From TrEMBL:
<feature type="domain" description="Sigma-54 factor interaction">
    <location>
        <begin position="322"/>
        <end position="514"/>
    </location>
</feature>
<dbReference type="InterPro" id="IPR029016">
    <property type="entry name" value="GAF-like_dom_sf"/>
</dbReference>
<keyword id="KW-0804">Transcription</keyword>
<dbReference type="InterPro" id="IPR058031">
    <property type="entry name" value="AAA_lid_NorR"/>
</dbReference>
<dbReference type="InterPro" id="IPR002197">
    <property type="entry name" value="HTH_Fis"/>
</dbReference>
<keyword id="KW-0067">ATP-binding</keyword>
<keyword id="KW-0805">Transcription regulation</keyword>
<dbReference type="InterPro" id="IPR002078">
    <property type="entry name" value="Sigma_54_int"/>
</dbReference>
<dbReference type="Pfam" id="PF25601">
    <property type="entry name" value="AAA_lid_14"/>
</dbReference>
<dbReference type="InterPro" id="IPR027417">
    <property type="entry name" value="P-loop_NTPase"/>
</dbReference>
<dbReference type="InterPro" id="IPR003018">
    <property type="entry name" value="GAF"/>
</dbReference>
<dbReference type="Pfam" id="PF02954">
    <property type="entry name" value="HTH_8"/>
</dbReference>
<keyword id="KW-0547">Nucleotide-binding</keyword>
<dbReference type="Pfam" id="PF00158">
    <property type="entry name" value="Sigma54_activat"/>
</dbReference>
<dbReference type="InterPro" id="IPR009057">
    <property type="entry name" value="Homeodomain-like_sf"/>
</dbReference>
<dbReference type="Pfam" id="PF01590">
    <property type="entry name" value="GAF"/>
</dbReference>
<keyword id="KW-0238">DNA-binding</keyword>
Amino acid sequence: MPTTDRRLRVAKARAEFLASGSVADAVVEETILTSWRRSRFAGVDIGTPHVPYGDEIDLRSRLVRCATPVMERMHERLDGIPVSVVLTDDKGRLLERKDSERRLARVWDNVYFAPGFSYAEAYVGTNGVGTALEDGRPVFVSGPEHFNERSMAFACAGAPIRNPLTRRIEGLIDLSCMAEDAHPMMRVLVQEAALDIERLLLDDGTERQRVVLEAFLASCRRCTCAVLSVCGDIVMANERASALLTPADVAFLKIMAVEARPGDRGMPVGMSLTEGRWAQVRRRTVIHGAGVAGAVFELHIPETPPKPRSARVSPPVALPGLVGRSQTWIDATVQAREAATGQLPLLIVGEAGVGKLALAHGVHQDSRSGARFAVVNCEVDAPGALIDAIDREPAPGLTVVLRHLDRLPAERVAEMSALLEDLLRQYPQPWVVATVGSAAATPNDLLRLFEATVTAPPLRHRIDDLDQLITALLNRLAPGRAAQCSDDAKRVLVRNAWIGNVAELNEVLAAALRRRPAGAIRREDLPPSCFTTSRRALSPIERLERDAIVRALAEVGGNRKSAAAMLGMSRSSLYRKMHAFGINSLDARS
């Protein structure tokens, strides 16, 4: 079929689709038609779509490093041909663009086809960048095959670049030109270029693994502690780490590895292991070139275990505003109340969101109800705020809590130490409590002033308390409404990893109540994050995609085929996104 005739038929089919949602003419490829459906479902503007810009793109990543020689070679070979070579990341954001003509550069800039701008399908509709990333395979989009009118003057061919080991999409290579200059061979060229970049990524990945291995072995030689390294999906552990860490502990360390940055100073942090032991963890970021190759973790556990507590089980302690019957939580409440009774300065250690401040407040309400409870945030408040909190003359029963003492700026440590010494000499002496995420990160000048330590357990170590916590939090979030969770919702909640602890549970229940302000919270009322195991930070558009997939699966009872049809995507694309977002719908079926 002549090219002009085909374009006219595609243009007519596009107009028919926009009017009725269906196409009778088989001239439109299934890939394009499916993309049109997705674009329509996403609400893409067919006239002037919004092309978002983000300045957080990484131009020093190993993708850019490995793609640069391939792009330069393509640019040289295509010299004299009016086409641009483009590299994007896995979200469709342009990283680099090499133009063969100045005229093309002006054209692309006018439509924001430039570094930093995202051409993801959810924003601009069917195009060589976004559609190739959605389908996970090379595509060629020309003229009226584009969903939005502004792109109909162009043609583009894109091919995803996959990690050669994990097969995860790392980015995309694209050739773009005016529609009248297009040729179907563009798809073949970008596919070959993508394979070349993947080969370079494999070579670079091998080098990254070598650098991380060397850092791992150096740590093993330097210390006798447990050592574990993470390089992408590859984890290495020495004998002590293998015996000490459970799969859940390793998963948590892999999350910490993803968060590693070149400038990290390797400050130790506290980590509560799955089997109840507390470790001081030092993360050493491994650099390769200008990027992060991986991370090595050194875990220090006290050689001599703490003196065993009495064999008797601690009796439950009912503290105002607190619930829980698990032994780890009971032990923490007993120890905290003993410190308050003995007027011992107390250090409460625990992960973010476990309820360290709530524990201090509950003990205060129990042992000195009616007295003042003063809180100083050491991360943002100057030490002088401590003086304001106690009004210089402490009243009987006063409790002073120093939140985030481990985050106190170094230049304020000496002043805070002097103020605390004065405070502990006053009469009547207030009960002083400090909350920290890591005792190792707290200066010794401050630690020496505390006589007792309590570890507030993470929610994953007191999962037996989940039912009581749900009831207590719902009563607080919806007073007087008799809100509750159905059994099917609780089954989902009990499987969550709860990295954010009780604070995360509170956010989940608050979101569920917004969806169902009256009646029992059901499984479908829970936010999509409850149905995923992915713990990497998702972009706004990824969160929208994840939420849409979870809602579709819920509406069709977990049937993936029906959900894919509802979303206008292939079943393979749905499976790929479910895996990428960690969606683990319990009722999902093919």
